[in-house]
Amino acid sequence: MLPPVIVMPLHDPAELMLPLLASVTPPLKELFVRAIVSVTAITWQTQPERVAALHADPFFHVIQHQRALPVGEDFALLYSTAAAACPPHQVLHLCYIDRVAYALGSEHRDQFMADVRSVRPEQTPLVFQRSQAAWQTHPRNYQEIEPMATLAGQWLFGVTLDFAWCHLALQAQQLAAVMPHVSRQDISIVAEMLLPLRHQARTKEVDWLAWEDPFVFGRDPAVLKREREGSMDETHKRLAYVIPMLELLYQASLCETGRAG
């Protein structure tokens, strides 16, 4: 079996993600044969030395955007490039550096590494989903808004999938088949990618997808959780991508039942 590849967008205006990536690069090299990353324009403009270090390391395949792009376009370029750059049966782990850094820097490290190593091509596509214990660490507005897309998927398609997924493992050929059919310009592109895979995707609930922000920002979890639960901006942020996901699932269901007008 080919060793897996990790695929991550890197948007870091706060200058937090690239230092996190540097801190976990050694264990990433234990788990993956290569990392394919997309670096947004503001990220390399504000941190040229850190981005240059990525270019200098053969472990990294760096896509460096020259202008600001919508999130969906950034993701589409990243995932299309990754699919084309890898052999068809190679397993790709699509994820985010803050989630991965938390998993590797917490009590979940061993389980995360074991779960990554356990994925075989015939088990894909595989959605790593937040366990109940992981969800309980998140603020209530996260817990109650994001699963709306999962609930809609249950009612519309009879599947239980986190359409706002944080970690998706699939073969390069599976990703290559999906990407020509996605067009969303916002984060709802992740739901659009999962839609054609919905009836073949497997799931695994994991504790290592617990809330990563206290780790990333160095904050007390209880204090930060209360702040986020009391923030209308945070509630709006969750709704801003969940509502488009719900519309996407609704329209797909109409097409599936032949009722689209």
Secondary-structure topology with pairs:
Elements: E1 5-10, H1 17-31, E2 34-39, H2 41-46, H3 48-56, E3 60-64, H4 71-85, E4 91-94, H5 97-104, H6 109-118, E5 126-130, H7 132-136, H8 140-145, H9 147-157, E6 167-171, H10 172-178, H11 189-194, E7 202-206, H12 213-217, H13 221-229, H14 232-256
Helix pairs in contact: 1-5, 4-10, 9-14
What is the mean pLDDT? 96
Give the low-confidence spans: none
Order of helices and strands: EHEHHEHEHHEHHHEHHEHHH
Spatial sequence of strands, sheet with the most strands: 3-2-1-4-6-5-7
Assembly type of the shown chains? Answer: single chain
Largest sheet: 7 strands, mixed
Secondary structure: helix percent: 40-55%
Number of helices: 14
Radius of gyration: 18 Å
Coarse shape? globular
The helix-and-strand class reads: alpha/beta
Topology, number of strands? 7
Distance between the termini: 46 Å
Task: Tell me the β content.
Answer: 5-15%
Describe the structure.
Helix 1 packs across helix 5 (97-104) and helix 9 runs parallel beside helix 14. The termini are far apart. The mean pLDDT is 96. The protein has helices at residues 17-31, 41-46, 48-56, 71-85, 97-104, 109-118, 132-136, 140-145, 147-157, 172-178, 189-194, 213-217, 221-229, 232-256, and strands at 5-10, 34-39, 60-64, 91-94, 126-130, 167-171, 202-206. The protein is globular and about 55 Å long. It has a 7-stranded mixed beta sheet with strand order 3-2-1-4-6-5-7, with helices on both faces. The longest helix has 25 residues, at 232-256. With 261 residues, it is α/β, with parallel strands linked by helices.
